[in-house]
Specification:
The structure holds two protein chains of two kinds.
Chain A lengths: L5 H11 L4 H4 L5 E3 L2 H5 L2 E3 L5 E4 L2 E3 L1 E13 L3 E7 L4 E7 L3 H7 L7 E11 L2 E11 L4 H28 L34 H12 L1 H4 L5 E2 H8 L3 H13 L3 E3 L5 E4 L5
Helix pairs in contact in A: 6-9, 8-9
Chain B lengths: L7 E2 L2 H4 L6 E12 L2 E6 L4 E5 L9 E10 L2 E9 L6 H12 L8
Parallel strand pairs in B: 1-2, 4-6
Antiparallel strand pairs in B: 2-3, 2-5, 3-4, 5-6
Chain lengths: ~270, ~110
């Protein structure tokens, strides 16, 4: 995927300094979005040419969907993309030989990756396509939707972190103490706090705190997921979800196999 | 832009919550039949698909159509998804797309 971490830094800069919005436009990467998200994108900026999804500025998008209504003209090709969440109008200007060449592979009814500029015309959004390539392995479709979810989760996490930084809270947060374990860990001492989403709040923090506990952190081969589930008295499924999230966030890693995890840092 | 007719990402278990609605899922073809096929969902449930099929079927197919019962779909579009497909990833995606992140999809 072409999206990178740097775009989120760009996004958070935008939130703090609107004056640099134009200057930062060029640093944006491709944002994976569902067509539903695109339909809900609001327009921001003085010239109303910038879009905003989940609070972050979006310039270029990547979408995966099924092609229909292909209309070929001399100077451009238009088509509709349907990703199951909505239908999006796409236009590919045929400026370079590469444009024509790439569009030859695009046929009705196939799944494609579309990368392009999000634009608005007479109130309707569409994408000015600069790359359209057929999906060859259908795991790419699953991956794209997972990437949309991931992007959304990270964008909202960055914003929450900003809001929380502005409301400085000096009280350290502690996870729910389990009476039989008695382990206590102050989350505020960690450099990166896992701000989690509604519904999964406590679990990620608890799992991370358990793995960061000095006694557990010291075990080279890592802690088995069953042990985590047992000690925290939570279902394995929830533990596995948390472990995945924490691993994706770079806070923990798997060791000898996919059932053993270790934290990247110990708590104090 | 048109988001009026989305197809909900479902697995075998979620199908029952969307009877009568437009859904999409990926199944492993168990048995082709006249006018359809029997498939196994990514969470190991049986799903019967009725409708027009492609001339030849790969191991996995995506079905987009209307759920007419908790175990069957009346297909509008059936697309071959090849002989390899990560079913556990897709299954998890279905759960996420119908759970915390529903608002990104429908």
């Amino acid at each position: 995927m072409m999206f990178s971490e740097s775009q989120f830094d760009g996004g958070s800069q935008i939130a703090n300094s609107p004056a640099t919005a134009a200057a930062n436009r060029d640093t944006f990467g491709l944002v994976p979005l569902t067509i539903k998200q695109i339909s809900e994108a609001s327009q921001s900026g003085d010239d109303k040419s910038n879009f905003s999804v989940s609070g972050a500025d979006v310039v270029n998008v990547t979408v995966v969907g099924m092609v229909s209504n292909i209309v070929e003209r001399n100077t451009d090709v238009t088509f509709t993309l349907d990703d199951g969440t909505g239908k999006l109008d796409c236009k590919r200007w045929l400026n370079e030989p590469f444009d024509r060449l790439q569009m030859e592979d695009i046929r009705e009814g196939i799944y494609v990756h579309v990368d392009g500029h999000l634009k608005s015309f007479k109130g309707e959004k569409h994408v000015a396509v600069f790359s359209a390539r057929p999906v060859t392995n259908f795991d790419e479709i699953t991956f794209h939707f997972v990437a949309c979810i991931h992007n959304h989760a990270r964008t909202t996490k960055v914003q929450k972190a900003q809001v929380d930084a502005e409301n400085i809270n000096s009280t350290p947060k502690t996870p729910i103490q389990n009476g039989t374990n008695g382990f206590v860990s102050t989350i505020s001492s960690q450099t990166s706090v896992p701000f989690t989403l509604d519904g999964v709040k406590g679990v990620d923090e608890m799992v991370l705190a358990y793995l960061q506990h000095p006694a557990n952190y010291g075990i080279e081969k890592g802690i088995h997921t069953d042990e985590v589930a047992q000690k925290l008295k939570l279902p394995s499924k929830k533990i596995m979800e948390s472990l995945r999230t924490l691993e994706n966030d770079g806070l923990i890693y798997s060791t000898i196999d996919e059932f053993h995890y270790k934290a990247c840092e110990a708590s104090n | 832009m048109d988001t009026s007719n989305p197809a909900v990402l479902v697995n075998g278990d979620l199908l029952r919550s969307y009877v009568g609605r437009r859904v999409r899922t990926v199944v492993q073809v168990v048995r082709p039949e006249a006018g359809g096929l029997t498939g196994r969902s990514t969470d190991e449930k049986q799903i019967v698909v009725k409708g027009q099929m492609p001339a030849s079927l790969t191991t996995f197919v995506e079905v987009i159509g209307v759920a007419d019962s908790a175990q069957s779909i009346h297909a509008e579009i059936v697309t071959n998804f090849g002989d390899t497909f990560d079913t556990s990833n897709f299954n998890q995606l279905c759960q996420l797309a119908n759970g915390d992140f529903r608002h990104l999809f429908i």
